[in-house]
Here is the input.
Amino acid sequence: MYATDFFDQVEHRILPALRSGTIVLADRFIFTLIARGVVRGINRDYMSGLYAMALRPHLTFWLNVRPETAFGREFKKAQAISYWEAGRDMSALARSVLVFHPLSDDDQARIRSHGQEAQLPRA
Here is the structure.
């Protein structure tokens, strides 16, 4: 879903703007999409390959912000955290996997102690 939307944005907004000589500033480009996929249990090499044909930015800024500060800024925008930003999709995914794939006591303890881990054991 993220990849489809990303490439649609590139094709219909970013490339036309660049072709017209406009400077494009993009917040949360491919690096965010790759990180979100990896956190949700998708193989890093697969995610990198998925976005391999994407344009690479000429300049990238990495912000070093404490999680509490980032959360406060995000929350301040709308007085709420979006479904995706909150990682609620990860909880639903983990619950659905647990329904169809019973885990050992050790695996369940690991999930409880680390929140909803992205990489659940496979049968």
